[in-house]
Design a protein that fits this description.
This protein is mainly α. Helix content is 81%, strand content 0%. The protein is built from 4 helices and no strands. The N and C termini lie far apart (61 Å). The model has no long low-confidence stretch (mean pLDDT 79).
C-alpha cells in the first residue's frame, strides 16, 4: 500500500501536468483558464505541504496547507460567478432590486 507521501506527491505531479495543459490554452481567450491555472498551482503547493506533513511543523504542514487548498477554490469560484452573472445579468439585477426592496 502506498504511503501518504507517495500519494500526495503523485497528486502534485498531476497538478503540474494539468498546469502544462492549461499553459497551452492561456492565449486562447477562454474565460477562466488563467484562474484555473492559479488554482492548480495553489493546489500543487498544498499537496506538497500535505506530503511532508510528518517532516514539517504541524502548523505549517496542516493549517497552512488547508488554507492554501481552500484558497485554490477562490479563483475558480469567482470566475464561475462572474460567467453566470454575465450570462444573465438582468436576472441578477432584478434579484438585487427585489432584495433591496424587501430589506427596506
Amino acid at each position: 500500500m502506498p504511503s501518504a507521501l507517495t500519494v500526495f506527491l503523485i497528486a502534485a505531479l498531476l497538478c503540474v501536468t494539468m498546469l502544462l495543459v492549461l499553459r497551452s490554452f492561456l492565449r486562447s481567450g477562454i474565460a477562466g483558464v488563467r484562474e484555473w491555472s492559479i488554482a492548480n498551482l495553489l493546489a500543487c503547493g498544498a499537496f506538497i505541504l500535505y506530503a511532508f506533513g510528518r517532516e514539517l511543523p504541524p502548523l505549517i504542514a496542516y493549517e497552512v496547507a488547508n488554507g492554501v487548498y481552500a484558497a485554490a477554490g477562490v479563483p475558480v469560484f469567482s470566475v464561475s460567478i462572474g460567467v453566470a452573472l454575465l450570462r444573465d445579468a438582468e436576472a441578477f439585477h432584478d434579484l438585487m432590486r427585489r432584495t433591496d426592496a424587501a430589506l427596506y
